[in-house]
Amino acid sequence: MPTAKASPLTAGTWTIDPVHSSIEFAVRHLVVSTLRGRFETFSGAITLAEDGTPSVTAEIAVASVYTGNEQRDAHIRSAEFFDTEHFPTATFTSTAVKGDGANYLLTGDFTLKGITRPVTLSLIFNGVNPGAGQGEVAGFESSAVLNRKDFGIVTDMPLPTGGAVVGEEVTLSLAIEALKQA
């Protein structure tokens, strides 16, 4: 069976398709296991200028956190963690994109809980496809490891045997499909 070959990204604005994309996270729980969750509401765009300069913007509705347990999700939304009443969104605005072998490093300002820090995400560009009737789509995969305390999520719930209920390092994983705007 023949395989399709992905095309390069062309100049223009590519809007993130939330139906075909995901933003997920993983964090240690009770030292020995990993809790996984996702954000269900987000938006963003990738813009490639005619001169080839890329930029990325994204916004996440932090209250859309979903871990499969409503009581836990409510706790994560509380002031002890995300404080979604006062900080309903997280944002990302790129500041640089540079090659990293066959992949890229995407650096930008990430704001969560009112605190902005520079973050660098590893980025894989999967190419462009003509799409399925809605126009061209581009695919990307990205990840980063953040320290939750850098963003004001400093709640410590120490365990009597050492360690904490929730780890400090959080791994973000993004699978993005973006639709080229006309």
Q: Give me the CATH architecture, please.
A: Beta Barrel
Q: Please give the radius of gyration in angstroms.
A: 18 Å
* Integer average pLDDT: 91
- CATH homologous superfamily classification: Lipid/polyisoprenoid-binding, YceI-like
Cα shape: elongated
CATH topology: Lipocalin
Total domain count? 1
User: What is the percentage of strand-forming residues?
Assistant: over 45%
Task: List low-confidence stretches.
Answer: none
What percent of residues adopt helix (DSSP H or I)?
Answer: under 10%
Strand order of the largest sheet: 1-4-5-7-8-9-10-11
N-to-C order of helices and strands: EEEEEEHEEEEE
Note the main sheet: 8 strands, antiparallel, barrel
| CATH first level | Mainly Beta
Contiguous helical run count: 1
| SS-derived structural category | mainly beta
Rounded to the nearest angstrom, the distance between the terminal CA atoms is 32 Å
Number of distinct beta strands: 11
Family: Belongs to the UPF0312 family.
Domain Lipid/polyisoprenoid-binding YceI-like: 13-179
Protein name: Protein YceI
Pfam families: YceI
Structure at a glance:
By secondary structure, this protein is mainly beta.
SSE blueprint and pairings:
Elements: E1 12-16, E2 22-29, E3 33-39, E4 42-48, E5 54-61, E6 65-66, H1 70-77, E7 89-100, E8 103-112, E9 115-129, E10 137-147, E11 166-180
Antiparallel strand pairs: 1-4, 1-11, 2-3, 2-11, 3-6, 4-5, 5-7, 7-8, 8-9, 9-10, 10-11
